[in-house]
Amino acid sequence: KEAMQMLVEAERKKRAVILESEGQKEAEINVAEATKRSQELRSEGERSLKINLAEGDAKALKIVADAKSEAIKAVARAISAEENGGQAVQYNVAERYIHEFGQLAKHNNTLILPANTG
Structure pTM? Predict the structure, then answer.
């Protein structure tokens, strides 16, 4: 009878060890799956952020390009509407050239002058 009780007790202990091992295994699997899911969500969030930032940058560039396009069109209309619009533009370009050339002269000791300035 004592031997039988020892066998039953050994079987109980064996089952307890197995159940504890299974529980530990399940817990580790759950932790690994949670870690994996957390990394996936973090990655998706970072991806979405990058996409949103890129789309925002693209929209900003488009807005700036559209504004520049409209400004150029307005200048072109104004130039063509005036009788001497082309001459006014040439005068403005010459003024800016002289101004910028003067700025260069202030900062450099040696200047190379273009042969055809006029």
Answer: 0.51
CB neighbours of residue 79 within 10 Å = 14
Contact indicator for 89, 98 with CB cutoff of 8 Å: no
pLDDT digits (tens, 9 = 90+) for 24-39: 999 999 999 999 999 9
* 3-state DSSP assignment of residue 104: helix
**Rounded Cα–Cα distance for residues 99 and 113 (Å):** 14
What contacts 54, CB < 8 A, 6 or more positions away? none
C-alpha–C-alpha distance, residues 65 and 114, integer Å: 33
Find out whether 107 and 101 touch, Cβ atoms under 8 Å. Answer: no
- Measured CA to CA, the distance from residue 58 to residue 39 in angstroms comes to 28
How far apart (Å, rounded) are the C-alpha atoms in residues 2 and 4? Answer: 5
DSSP string for residues in 57-93? HHHHHHHHHHHHHHHHHHHHHHHHHSTTHHHHHHHHH
Mean pLDDT of 103-107: 75
Nearest-angstrom CA–CA distance, 7 and 15: 12
